[in-house]
Each structure stands twice: as structure tokens, then as C-alpha cells.
Amino acid sequence: MLDFRTDMADERLKECEKEGKIEGISSENINVNDKIKVTKVRVLNEQGKEKIGKEVGTYITIEIKEIEVINEEELEKVSKILSGQIQELIKPYKSILVVGLGNIDTTVDSIGPKVIKDLKITRHLKKYAPDLVGKNAKELSGIAPGVLGTTGIETQEILKGIVEKVNPDVIIAIDALISRDISRLFKTIQISNTGITPGAGVGNTRKEISRKTMGVPVIAIGVPTLVEAATIVADSIELIANQFEEFAQLKNATKEDKYRLMKAVLEPSKFNLTVTPKEVDDLVDNMKLIIAHGINGGI
Amino acid sequence: MLDFRTDMADERLKECEKEGKIEGISSENINVNDKIKVTKVRVLNEQGKEKIGKEVGTYITIEIKEIEVINEEELEKVSKILSGQIQELIKPYKSILVVGLGNIDTTVDSIGPKVIKDLKITRHLKKYAPDLVGKNAKELSGIAPGVLGTTGIETQEILKGIVEKVNPDVIIAIDALISRDISRLFKTIQISNTGITPGAGVGNTRKEISRKTMGVPVIAIGVPTLVEAATIVADSIELIANQFEEFAQLKNATKEDKYRLMKAVLEPSKFNLTVTPKEVDDLVDNMKLIIAHGINGGI
Amino acid sequence: MLDFRTDMADERLKECEKEGKIEGISSENINVNDKIKVTKVRVLNEQGKEKIGKEVGTYITIEIKEIEVINEEELEKVSKILSGQIQELIKPYKSILVVGLGNIDTTVDSIGPKVIKDLKITRHLKKYAPDLVGKNAKELSGIAPGVLGTTGIETQEILKGIVEKVNPDVIIAIDALISRDISRLFKTIQISNTGITPGAGVGNTRKEISRKTMGVPVIAIGVPTLVEAATIVADSIELIANQFEEFAQLKNATKEDKYRLMKAVLEPSKFNLTVTPKEVDDLVDNMKLIIAHGINGGI
Amino acid sequence: MLDFRTDMADERLKECEKEGKIEGISSENINVNDKIKVTKVRVLNEQGKEKIGKEVGTYITIEIKEIEVINEEELEKVSKILSGQIQELIKPYKSILVVGLGNIDTTVDSIGPKVIKDLKITRHLKKYAPDLVGKNAKELSGIAPGVLGTTGIETQEILKGIVEKVNPDVIIAIDALISRDISRLFKTIQISNTGITPGAGVGNTRKEISRKTMGVPVIAIGVPTLVEAATIVADSIELIANQFEEFAQLKNATKEDKYRLMKAVLEPSKFNLTVTPKEVDDLVDNMKLIIAHGINGGI
Predict the structure, then answer these.
(1) How many CA atoms lie within 13 A of A221 on its CB side?
(2) Which residues in chain B have Cβ-Cβ distances shorter than 8 Å to C122?
(3) Which of B55, C49, C142, C244 is the most buried (most CB within 10 A)?
(4) Is-contact C84 C196, C-beta < 8 A?
């Protein structure tokens, strides 16, 4: 899982633009329709990198409004837009290794490995059933390397080993993201061609999956799936601090006042937001065992 | 999913006891060991009911400390304690219908249906393989009726229909609970013999699953699995309001101050708490499709 | 799971037609394209019933050739054909209860409950969100009642109880079928409006789910998912008996001779057929536990 | 999935022993109780290898009778026996990489990856939480590399890459086996220290996972989970051929005669054997989509 804080090139740009035109950066906004919006930021050179604090490369954000009521057709529309963006990024490459980062048994962290299961893998067909694939077709291979906690091995090490054997021209790495912003949960897909650092943030470049560590370009696709509970609390404090006069009476505040604040913090997401341990899948299974054995033993 | 707010008999009692001895209520505390604690509250009569605001009946709470590092042996210990409590409650009854409330495909709401899968069902054996069960053995049957959103039918209606055909002597209903208190998440099992109202709270007795609606006694077993995000925010406001002088400077507060408050709100749980939509399982599958189709289409 | 032997109206008809024209039966063949074929047999009256040995009613068979290499578009085509047939059968009815028979945890028996999970249930919306559904829209409800072995209750009893509460106008019951014919495995969908008898065959009408037992019409949708191993053996004996002269030398037969027979028996299916216990899902989980505990304990 | 034909050292030995004492081979039989039997065959040198046609090494078979009615306690007993055998084989090694071969989404082929999920992985703890593991504890890491059809990469290549990075002292490879003998399905665990060749048989040593290809010793643990349908047919022919006089009248055989033969072929397994495509999990999901869309579209 990727730390999200430093990854939103489109948000960085907004901040920077307040201060006027920026050299070394180009950007583009496409409103596909009233539900889907694509933002593309290109950091062109060292000057741009310095300004925006992001590596030289392309950063694409697909935003989907009201995904909670999306239908099949609209889902397919978003897929097609994503296809187009990917197509452009992988045009020069022939052999593509897709890597599904994360833990398939932890729901919020499962999107990477789940994508791998639905891919149309073709690399082996070139060898074993060449008639099924065109002569110039790209070769797709895919792997879900698991996470450190379940393999005991750094994900980066596993991938390095595999890349040395498979020799892909490019890697596409998919991961769930920790978001700082509840309004982006499950509503944003980010694509960049500058790699990814799974499971962290705090400057730990050891685990980076990028051209530097893999030897080939790495396209990262990420979806924000959770916000740390601490973030929500911090946000509510922020809000209080900003509207201090208004909330000064909170000591004797009515329930309605508190409710108003609560709404202000949570409104941007239309979901039924809940706080639960990240390990909820395991914890449910433990409790299930306790209760089932409890009943079986009590009968 | 049950609203938890009004359900913690042990907490209610604590509040009441501050005001002195209470007639019509008996209570008992057992520290099984330094990790497991059992609290039993009995509301004996109308006088007790009025005081504590809970129906006449027995309310048992099993608390497990440090469940995040529990081992198999300790798990089995908790099962045995639960077995004992259930045994006492079902002693008079022969035919038991276990009902797993909730939605198996929504992780936080899946504990009821998952328990059903692990039960040793025996009711049919009496008829089809009488040699396999003792003559005086209890008859166990089990059903996971689903939730309104996936069946289109009120759970209570489904159960009424089944109870009329199966004629059990007692129902055991298992459900995930919405908690108000993050320190109880996945660490508490509540058992009562006064029934359950799934999916709600606000005085909606229509959906109640109890002796009144089912015609037979209903033992409820509940586990708190989530806190609404709004609760966390409300709690942080509460804390600020209570320590107002201390936090008055928040407007210009340092990061450290904010962090201190954040810790105060989240500390009671040792888990890695996250905020995510309740529908996370579905949302992950949607996003998986978008990305997998996106890649398949882009190659 | 339904016994399949007596259920293939189209095969019965073929047998009967050898003897000439039949009164009281009409039939229709539609070759949708070179991959999909629909056969519709109508038993019109008692005379027809007697001839063909099937209840008065409509029997539809959708056959899909080469489903092992079917693509998404063709899948959707078959869905549409099925939609059309269902539409015709349910035209007079408004409130529809779909019943998913079988055990979701036994792969070959899981199709019924799995379909329920993918339905667009609307019955509750009429009440709780009437704006979301048209005024004249049909009401869809759905239930997966489980199997006797996991509930301890006859499926028919559960359904009777629910039907009495829900009062649907028609039931659609979906089940996996035991086939006698490996060439039909996963390649045939059968629809009839005469009900279904899950889990069996041999004249056990007690368990029948039909207008007689439910009080409303029952449309059955079935898919053959397995052949009993005994059937394969019986078929191979049949073949040997029929080609006795040819196989008389089998005592000293070469491997090639045996292989030839083997091919003759298994050829009609293009699948990689395997023999495995029906309980394979459970057995795999047991073995997994043994080996995982074995390794954990051995380290 | 491993071809089983050449792997049953205990059966080979039985064949050979008919011809008298064998040099270069030692064997041992332990009847743990009346349900569990352990056979250990050691091929000591080239002479033994030549006789029995198996590599120099140790071949252990754990047989479990009546696993269809096994209880938890007996399961744990088998785990302990397996633990003991593994302990002996890995005594000299410190860092162990467990490899779960097979496809987790194909039930009969899922045992390898499923075992990986239940292991107590410790390798990373040495580095990140050294206090949690003893100083001299073994290091366990685990990986489920997937199958060629879903990764596009030869399993052997993936493993070579990982082994070069992880540098384990020994590999334990777990796989589902194709059996020739229905009486062994899910009732036998085989352990050897001579490696494994997944997915095949016919002399394809390219894919071998062994000391030769991995550079470290490979302990293989296998469980037979399926028999090819062709094998059942071949077996029935064999039986007919052997009892030719008896079955000579089969042309005009009664149902009873056929039933007798059928029983003779299938008796050794006490399971409810079924013939179904190996791809049953996928096929069920396809059909589910067709029917669910069919109903959704027809309403």
C-alpha cells in the first residue's frame, strides 16, 4: 500500500499555480462528461521537478463522480479511458509485466492481486500456442508477489528476481493507496510513469519499484481505498481551529452544533463511512471460530 | 446490523451504580484470567427494568484483552467460556434454530452467516441418520436469511415463515454490531436472552427478532465490528470541548498538539484503525473490473 | 441438485418421434447461430403427457456449442436469449421470488446461490425507495435457502414458510443438475414451467418444488454440472457390450485399443474431464490444515 | 500439478519385492494406529535407483483411512506425524522457502497456494522484530508463484529468480497430484526429498523443481486430488479384460451385472465420485453470469 500524501500531482500543481505560471510543467484537463474528468500533468524537466516536488514524468488522474451509483455502461466507459491512457504510455514496449501489489485477503489492500486474476495473459501463448496471438501482439505476463507479512520477503526483492528472468520492457504496478482525503476514496485512479513505493511513504526509497530499482520503466496505477482514522480526527481539529470563533462555544454546544461539524468533516464522501481495523478480515474469521466453537460446544 | 448504543447493559449498570444500590438488578464479575473478563447483569423485574432501561433478562459480556495477539489456545478458551454461558441459557430447550444475521459479502457484517457455515447441524440427522446422534441430543438447525438489500424481503418475515415450519424451542441470533466505542471493536462478545433488532436502532420495533415477534425465546450473540466515522469525529469534538482551555490555542497549534489529541481519541484501540466505506468489498470489485478491462483493452 | 435423467424433454421427444407423429405435443427448433440452438417442447394435454411422460407445460433447452472458448459478447448473447424466454414465461406475473437451490460452498452445486448474489433485487425498493422503480415494474426478491446438510431443514419447508410471507405470483428456481451425458455438461440451460425436485429423482415427490407444493407456478432453470463417475463406467460397459465383437480381443488388447475405447466414451465433451469427490472443496480445506499445521509444527 | 504415475515409491517397491530382496533400498512401515499408516522407502545408492527407478533419496507416504469421517483430533494427529517427518528432513537447514504450487482458483489444484496462507512466516521478523523470534529459530518464507496459464511465466523461472534473491537453504514445494488410483484420492500425503515436476510427467525435466535446477535441496509434499476420467474408463476396461469369461455375456447383461462391474471399479473410494471438467470453478462463474443477466434482463 502506497502512501498517498506526496503523490497527487494534480493537487500539487493547484497549489503551485496560485503563485503564477510555472516553467517546466504542462497540464491538461479533459471533462469527458459530467461524471468523468481526466487531469494530466507533465513534469518536463529539472526546473519543473523542483517547483512541484515530483519526478520528471507524466501524472494522470481519472476522477469519477458518483461512483456509488455507477452503472455497467459507465464502468466500461471509465475502462476505455484508462485503456487509452495506458496505450499511450506503453506504445514503445512489447513485453509487459503487470504486478499486483498488496494482500488479496485484506479487502482494502486487495485491488492489485484481484486485477491480476482478470487479465488476459498472453506471454506463454507466444511459445505454446503462437496461432492464438498475432505476430506483433504485445506479450502480457502478470504476478501478485504478496506482501512482506505473508511471504517474509521484501516485495522489491521478489520482483527483482522475476524481472531478471522475464526481462519485460516495462512494468505496470497496481496498488491500493492510503488517502488523506475522504472525498477521493474509490473515486480516483492515478496513473504515472515514475514508479511506486509500496507500503509506506517516509522517504524509504529502499522499497521503491521504479526504473532505478527494476532497470525498466515502471507505470504505476493506484486507487485510494482507505483513510487512516487519525486523518479524520486531525481534519476535524483543523476545521475547529480554522473556524475557532464559531466553535468557541463548543464547551456547551448542543448536539446539533456537534452534528453540524461532523457533517462538515465527512460530507465530501457520499459513502457510509466506517471505522474498522485494517485487519478486519482476519478478525472476523477469529470471532467466527470462537462463536461457532462456542455454540458447537454448548449444544 | 444492530445499533449498539442502547445495548451495553454492563455500561448502563455502571452509570446507574454511581447513584447507589439498585433494586431489581443483580450483577456478577468474573476475571477468568488477566486477558478474559465476564460480566453478567440480570434485570430481575419491572423495577430493575425501569432503573436500567433494559428488558427483564440476562445480559452477559465477555471481554478479551489484546485479541490482536491472541493465540489458538486462548481462542479455544474464550470458545469454552461462551459454550458455558450458552449451555446455561439453552438448558431447558431441545430444538435450537441458529440464525446468522447480516451480509456474508460485506466483511464487517459477515460474522453471522459465517458462523452458520461452521456449526455442526444435527436436526436432519434425527430423521435420516438417527444412529449418529444420541436419543436425547439437542437438535441444531441453522439459517443465514440474508439482508433486505439482497433478498428484497424483511429478515423478520423470512424468519417468521421458517420458525412456523421448523418450530424450534429457542432461537440463537448472531449479528455484527455497530459500536459507539472503538475500545470494544472485536474485543467483546455480548449475549442476552432478550432478542435483537437488526440493522437499526431508532425505536423501530417492527424489525425486532424476539419472543414477542417469533413466539419463542431469542438469545442474541453480538460482536461489535465497526464504529461509524461520525462517531470518531463526535468523540474528538467531545474531547476538545471537555479540555477546552487546554486546546484553546489550537488555532495556532503545532503538529505535536494535534497529534496528542489524535492519540487521545484513538488510543483505546490497539488496532490500525482505518476509515473506509462500508461497501468496500463491492467498491474494490468494481475498481478491479475497471482496471483489468482497462489494461486488457490497452494492450 | 436435480436428477437429470427424467428431465430432458427434448431427448424424450426425439425417442418418441421415431415412432411417428405425436398428438398433444408441439415442438420448435431455433438455430440462433452456429453456436446457439434453442429447442422448445410444449406438452399440451393429458394425451401428450402420457406419450412423452412429462407434465403438461413448456420445456425449453438452450444449447451452447464450444462454451469452453466462448467470449464475452457471446455470453451476453446467450443471456439475451434466456431473458426472452423468461420474459415470455413470467409475463402474467408481477411479484417474482427467485430461489437459488444448492450449496454455495460445493463448487458443482453452487450455481443457484451464486445467481442470487448477482440479481437486481427490487421488491424492497417499492416500499423504501419507490422513486427508484417504475410504478408498473415487476418486484424481484431472491433467496438462497441452503441445503439440508447445512441447515438441518428440508429446503421445501424453508421455501413454504417464506412463500407464505412473501406471497409471490411466481417462483423461479435455479439449480445445478446431475447429468447422464457428459456432452451436455455446462453446455445446456433448461427452462421449464413445471417445477423442480432438488437433490434427487427416484419418485420422491415430498421434496418437489412446484405449483402443487408452493401454491404458485414454479419456473425451473437448470444447468448440468456433473456426471456421476458410475455413469461413465456404465457408459463404457455399454459401449463394450454394443461393440462386443470388436472388443472381444480386449483381454490381450494393446494400449492403443484401450485408448481408442476411452476416447469413444469421453469424446463428446471437449473438457479436461476429471474424477474427484463431490466434497472436494471441503477435502482440500482439510488437507490444507493438515499440511500447514504440519509445516508450522515442524519448523 | 504433478503426474503421479512415476511417484509412488511404496508401490514400486511392492512390485519389486515380489521378485525377492533388493539391494540398495531400505524400507519401514509404521502403523500409527488403525487409521494412520506411514511408509518410508529409502533409495540408498545407484544400485537401488536402478532397481526401483527412483532417484536416490527418501520417500515417505502417510496414509489416512476413512478421511471422509475424520474428526479434528485425528486431523491434528496427522499434522503431528507430518511435522515429525518434516522436522527430520529439514534438521540441517536454517532458512526454508515454502512454495505453494498450483492455481488457487481451481479447487482441485488449490492446495499448494492455500497452505501458504496458513503458514507462520518468520523470515521478515528476524529483521524487523527480532525479539519475537528466538536467536536460533529457523526462518520461514513462503510464496505461491501461480501457474503458467495465469502468469504467462514458467513457474520454474519465477522460482529461480526468487531463490537467487532469498538464498534459502532448502525449499519445501507443495502440490496437488493427479492420481491413477481412486483409492488414494485425498487419503495420502507423499513427502520426498528429491524434488518435484509440476504440471506434467512425460519426461519434461525442463520444468523440474529440484536441487539440480534450484541449487538447493527440494522437499516435495504432494496430495492426490483428482483422477483423470480417462483413467476410470481404462480401469473398467482392464477389469473387463481380466474377468473376460465372466463378462462375456455383457452384450445381453442385466442391469445388475453392469452395476456389479461399476461397483468393482469405484469401490476403493468411499467418496461420492463425480466427473466434471477441471475448469469447473470458471465454468460455474460463466453460467452464473449468463443466468443472472438473463433474469435481470427478463424482468
Answers:
(1) 28
(2) 152
(3) C142
(4) no
Cα–Cα distance, D218 to D208 (Å, whole number): 10
Tell me the Ramachandran region of residue D29: left when phi exceeds 0, alpha when psi lies from -120 to 50, beta otherwise.
beta
Nearest residue in chain A measured CA to CA from B180: A275
B6: part of which helix (H) or strand (E)? Answer: none
The three-class DSSP label of residue B283 is: helix
Q: What is the pLDDT of residue A21?
A: 67
Strands B170-179 and B2-3: parallel
The nearest CA of chain A is from the CA of B25 a distance in Å of: 26
Q: What is the ipTM of this complex?
A: 0.86
Go through chain D and tell me how many residues it has: 299
Q: Are the Cβ atoms of A298 and B84 closer than 8 angstroms?
A: yes
**Residue D59 domain-assigned?**
yes
Grouping H, G, I as helix, E, B as strand and the rest as coil, residue D222 is strand
Q: Which of A228, A25, D88 is nearest to B269 (CA)?
A: A228
Residue A233 near residue B236, CB atoms below 8 Å: yes
Residue pLDDT, tens place only, C20-38:
667 888 888 888 888 899 9
Q: Which residues of A sit within 8 Å Cβ distance of D?
A: 105, 116-117, 121-125, 139-146, 148-154, 157-158, 160-166
Q: B280 and A107: CB-CB below 8 Å?
A: yes
Instruction: Find the domain containing A223 and state its range.
Output: 9-117+143-294
Say how many residues make up chain B.
299
Interior/surface letters A45-72, b for 16+ CB within 10 angstroms, e for the rest? eeebbebbebbebbbbbbbbeebbebee
**Per the structure block, which three cell numbers stand in for D82?**
507430518
Best of B226, B237, B286, B296 to disrupt the A interface (most A CBs within 10 Å) is B237
**Cβ count within 10 A of residue B90:** 20
Mutate to test the interface with B, among C158, C160, C206, C289 (most CBs of B within 10 A): C158
Out of C117, C152, C162, name the one closest to residue B140 (CB).
C152
* Number of domains into which chain A is organized: 1
What's the pLDDT band for A206 if we cut at 50, 70, 90?
A: low
Provide the b/e sequence for C134-170 (b: ≥16 CB within 10 Å).
eeeebbbbbbbbbbbebbbbbbbbbbbbbbebbebeb
Angle in degrees, 0-180, between the axes of helices A255-266 and B229-242, rounded to the nearest 10? 130
CATH number, domain containing residue D24: 3.40.50.1450
Residues in chain B with CB shorter than 8 Å from the CB of A268 are none
Predicted model pTM: 0.89
- pLDDT tens digits, residue range D164-181? 999 999 999 999 988 878
Task: Give the pLDDT confidence of A227-267 residue by residue, as tens digits.
Answer: 888 777 777 777 666 665 665 555 566 666 666 666 666 76
Amino acid D201: pLDDT: 38
C-alpha span between C262 and C255 (Å, rounded):
10
In a domain, A136, yes or no: no
Do A194 and A149 touch, CB atoms closer than 8 A? no
Distance from CA of B22 to the nearest CA of A (A): 30
D35 in a structural domain = yes
Residue B128 lies in a domain: no
Report CB contact under 8 Å: D232, C229: yes
Q: How far is CA D259 from the centre of its chain?
A: 31
Amino acid at D131: D
